[in-house]
Amino acid sequence: MITLTGTAHMAVWGKWLGDALGTNAAGASAGNALFGIFLSLVVYLFGQWLFKIGKGFFLFQPLFVGMVLGIFILFLFAKAFGTDTATFYKSAYLPGGNIIFWFLNPATIAFAIPLYRRNDVVKKFWLEIVLSLIVGLIISLFVIYYVSKLIGLDNVGIASMMPQAATTAIAMPIATAIGGNSAVTAMACILNAVIIYALGDWLVKFFRVNSDPIGAGLGLGTAGHTVGSAKALQLGSIQGSMASIAVVVISIVVDIVVPPFASMMGLI
Amino acid sequence: MAANDKATKTETAKEEQASPILIQMGIFAAILFVSSLISPLFPATFPVPTPVIGLVILYILLATHIVKLRNVEKFGDFMISLIAFLFVPSGIQLAASLDILKAQGVQLVVVILIATIVLLVVVAYTTAGFIWLRKNVFHRDVNVEE
């Protein structure tokens, strides 16, 4: 009897929650954006809190904690509702997630400001900046290609790894064009940012990247996209400006360099 | 004390100079709108997304002094300070591709980790090399103000 009422309660609560989250058949069309926004904020703020009490332990970086915890919560919810994580993500999280995601547009544009603040460096070194990004990318492509081969990725996997230096919106169509899987490329772009965000300070110190501020900025912008630029700004105004220019120029360089590189390596 | 007063005064003067936040947002919105019109003009084989065009447009507007720093600075710096949070949905997006991770996950993550480090280190040292060339081979000035 008790179990029966318990189940009945569960059903009522389940229906209410399902309607609210937009996962029930009835509520599917009216997906509630507030859940996605709320979950993103909660996991990120929890990450910030953990980072503070963990005295800055690198794995407690708020973005990384938020990502892992967010996926885990979606996984648990999906289990509770009896669907798979991908479906639950799309119906319950995505409407709100997309609203936050949209703000990356103005945030990316905003990097023109630190770029312009050090316009003196841009004007003086524009040739070195462009050449370094082209040559640096080509060398990196060779290394990434052979590392992927060594680790045993198939051609689709290798092709998906090639365009990751570009911003996601450029990298994905290029990956498709050279025979890669654009979802894997998108994952690479995201993980680039997460890795630079979590390990950036340590990597900069370990590889003594900051011995040349222009190089440090270009490297962080190339490897970590806009998150790398935010990291670079913490090192200094030159680094921040150089990372901002790297995000733009490297994307265009990927546009031009990666397709011929892929055909040279026999990927297409 | 007097110096302190002066500092506060210039601070307030600076505050007054900054454009109202709605105007700053308006400038961003206008740039985004124009960029979204330009972006589809590029061929599918040479994609250039809206925010990249927007960054270039805002830089050109700043460099030509059509838009002043005080018109965009406050909102722009605020958006930059949010960047890590704005990436949370992108990170959680991986929930949709957990099946890819199941198939080749560990290898992919290892390659991505190595690729990230390679891009950072190779680009940084290539740049240091070109700066060295500029200084020692072409004998041009390499000093920058901090």
UniProtKB/TrEMBL annotation, chain A:
<dbReference type="Pfam" id="PF04172">
    <property type="entry name" value="LrgB"/>
</dbReference>
<keyword id="KW-0472">Membrane</keyword>
<feature type="transmembrane region" description="Helical">
    <location>
        <begin position="93"/>
        <end position="113"/>
    </location>
</feature>
<keyword id="KW-0812">Transmembrane</keyword>
<feature type="transmembrane region" description="Helical">
    <location>
        <begin position="25"/>
        <end position="46"/>
    </location>
</feature>
<feature type="transmembrane region" description="Helical">
    <location>
        <begin position="241"/>
        <end position="262"/>
    </location>
</feature>
<protein>
    <submittedName>
        <fullName>Antiholin-like protein LrgB</fullName>
    </submittedName>
</protein>
<dbReference type="InterPro" id="IPR007300">
    <property type="entry name" value="CidB/LrgB"/>
</dbReference>
<dbReference type="GO" id="GO:0016020">
    <property type="term" value="C:membrane"/>
</dbReference>
<feature type="transmembrane region" description="Helical">
    <location>
        <begin position="58"/>
        <end position="81"/>
    </location>
</feature>
<feature type="transmembrane region" description="Helical">
    <location>
        <begin position="125"/>
        <end position="148"/>
    </location>
</feature>
<feature type="transmembrane region" description="Helical">
    <location>
        <begin position="168"/>
        <end position="199"/>
    </location>
</feature>
<keyword id="KW-1133">Transmembrane helix</keyword>
